[in-house]
Amino acid sequence: MDAAFFDMDGLLVDTEKVWLKIETEVMKVLGGVWTPEHQTHLVGGSMERTVDYMLAVSGSSVAPEVLRGWMIDGMVAELAGGVQTMPGALELLGDLRAEGVPIALVTSSLKEIAESVLAAVGREHFDVIVTADDVSRTKPDPEPYLTAAALLGVEPVRCVVLEDSPNGVAAGTAAGCAVVAVPSLLPIEPAAGRLVVSSLTEVDVARLRALVPPASA
């Protein structure tokens, strides 16, 4: 295993409930109603997708850039109070670091939101950070994971992606990486090159290494 790539929302940190809170509050301002079912349409998606969907659901004429600003400000303010890491996440990061495995954080969230999370979790866990601001196409496109691999100088086929959403799993698979899925709001089925677990506490470095094909002679 040449590197491990961690998703952020729902995989590294328990922020899906924060997104739901902010989306609900902003939707009230737009004059609409937001439910957990609405949120499932956006898991693992970009801010642009979120904004477009919220405007469609509410029928509001608010400018997209204004709504985008409300969402960013709301998330940054909420995350300033701290974030909760997902079970097993910090332990796995520490074990990977102890074995010298390069680690990237690869998220569809904007840089401002990722920075708020990193301020709480610790930037020192990651060698590379890839956010929505660093790519032209976000998940499920493979570009975010291909970008992380290029920045670390590793081959995607020798890397493991850890994800919680179908969009993220699709991105990691399309990039050629092995994938560990820890489903959050949406189900994810096992498949070739994909390990599905209920928690990161079920995963250790040896289990990640076992997912990667042997290096070529």
From TrEMBL:
SUPFAM superfamilies: HAD-like
Domain of life from the UniProt record: Bacteria
Keyword annotations of the record: Hydrolase
GO molecular function: hydrolase activity
InterPro entries reported for this sequence: HAD-like_sf, HAD-SF_hydro_IA, HAD_2, HAD_sf, PGP-like_dom2
Keyword Hydrolase annotated: yes
Record-linked Gene3D superfamilies: HAD superfamily/HAD-like (3.40.50.1000), Putative phosphatase, domain 2 (1.10.150.240)
Pfam families: HAD_2
Protein's name in the database: HAD superfamily hydrolase (TIGR01509 family)
